[in-house]
């Protein structure tokens, strides 16, 4: 039984089909990579699943419930989390405070006197930081962190919403190769530990082939291949469109 069922999903911008009749499934405990050249429709797909963008046609079932037409904040509360390409942390707050803020937001607490309210979430926030190996840096302001560590804090913040499905659009953008491997390895561990589903995009094929359980390939809005690393790598259309061979 799949957690996410995307069926015949399309998005048109004017006459241009950014996403053209794609269908795929995602199970709990699965790390699914969405790959394809720039402009293939990856971010558009993320934005439709997350509710940031209305679809032109199709269906997105999450745990059997239709997501199309549901506002993004309701989708988040249904258990669909996401990380964004642009850093979403508050630079002047500490690592711990950022995660406390995410927990407050998830529990819909009022923001006045937030430091007092946040105290109730201190242990939970520290536990989330432990899960992303950032507990040692809890009291540092985010402005002092290395870029790769900011990404880990963002991951802890998205875990604060207890997502059953996490959408990660280019989570390793701007990171050095070693950091990329580290972050995706961490995500893979979390997928297994939490039986969480993750849909992610990643430019490094080495990282995708090393960690993804399954891969789907988009080109010009169309889904041209899906399967294991071996299956996708051997696909003639992928060779032609994606690797330019
Ligand atoms: P990817 O994330 O795979 O690089 P996108 O989903 O961002 O691709 O874009 C897919 C296509 O849709 C591109 O041709 C892009 O120019 C177009 N597109 C994306 N967003 C918009 C928009 N808001 N208005 C018009 N065209 C868009
Ligand atoms: Mg994109």
UniProtKB/TrEMBL annotation:
Residues 4-245 form the ABC transporter domain. Pfam families: ABC_tran, BCA_ABC_TP_C. Keywords: ATP-binding, Cell membrane, Membrane, Nucleotide-binding, Transport. One of its GO terms (molecular function) is ATP binding. One of its GO terms (biological process) is L-valine import across plasma membrane. CDD domains: ABC_Mj1267_LivG_branched. SMART domains: AAA. One of its GO terms (cellular component) is plasma membrane. Signal peptide: none annotated. This is ABC transporter ATP-binding protein. It comes from Pollutimonas subterranea.
